[in-house]
Amino acid sequence: MVLVLDNIRSGLNVGSAFRTADAFLLNHLYLCGITAQPPHREILKTAIGANDSVAWTYYPNTVDAIDELKSQGYLIIAIEQAEGSIGLQDFEINGEGKYALVFGNEVKGVRQEVMDRVDHCIEVPQFGTKHSLNISVCVGVVVWDFFKAMHL
Predict the structure, then answer these.
(1) SS3 breakdown of the chain: % helix, strand, coil, rounded to 5?
(2) Which of 22, 51, 68, 92 is deepest in the core (most CB within 10 A)?
(3) Nearest residue to 108 via CA among 50, 24, 34, 52
(4) Strand residue runs (E) in 8-126
(5) How does pLDDT run across 107-128, given as a tens digit for each residue?
(6) For the chain, what are the domain ranges?
(7) Adjacency order of strands within the sheet including 75-79
(8) Of 33, 29, 34, 1, which is closest to residue 16 (Cα–Cα)?
């Protein structure tokens, strides 16, 4: 399992993604577009060293990262509120699968040109008055769900 961060504007959120990736032994982070890369003060603040234990690659264009991952046999899954999305609780996770989870910008989400290339779109169900999660929280929820299905 790998993470693809599509134009994440907050270095703090990127650092949190590194921490989550380290906690659940993810293979790689793909930092794309305007997403900050280590060493970056905000990443270092929240990653607390996880940026040294998790491999990462920067791509100026997220589509190029997606195309590379597809060529390596990854199933590309956007985490986004979109028409036709599948609820996280309803998505069938294959323990033998290779998954690239794509998380988008805090305001604009996953860009349409990226959405056009994904294999599936998953949405985290929410029941309160707010209809979005901070990306760092969303990464934790989704990665944990995948990790459970794949390893426990």
Answers:
(1) 40, 20, 40
(2) 51
(3) 34
(4) 28-32, 56-59, 75-79, 86-87, 99-104, 120-123
(5) 999 999 999 999 999 999 999 9
(6) 2-151
(7) 56-59, 28-32, 2-6, 99-104, 75-79, 120-123, 86-87
(8) 29
**Cα distances (Å, whole numbers) of residue 60 to 31, 33, 65, 93:** 8, 5, 9, 30
54 neighbors 28 (Cβ within 8 angstroms) = yes
How do residues 36-87 score in pLDDT, each as one tens digit? 999 999 999 999 999 999 999 999 999 999 999 999 999 999 999 999 999 9
Cα 142–143–147 angle (5° rounding)? Answer: 120
Is the bond leading into 39 cis (omega within 30 degrees of zero)? Answer: yes
- Calculated CA dihedral for residues 149, 88, 30, 65, nearest 10 degrees: 110
What span, in angstroms and rounded, lies between the C-alpha atoms of 79 and 102?
Answer: 6
The backbone region for 138, taken as left when phi is positive above 0, alpha when psi lies in -120 to 50, beta otherwise, is: alpha
What CATH number does the domain located at 2-151 have?
Answer: 3.40.1280.10
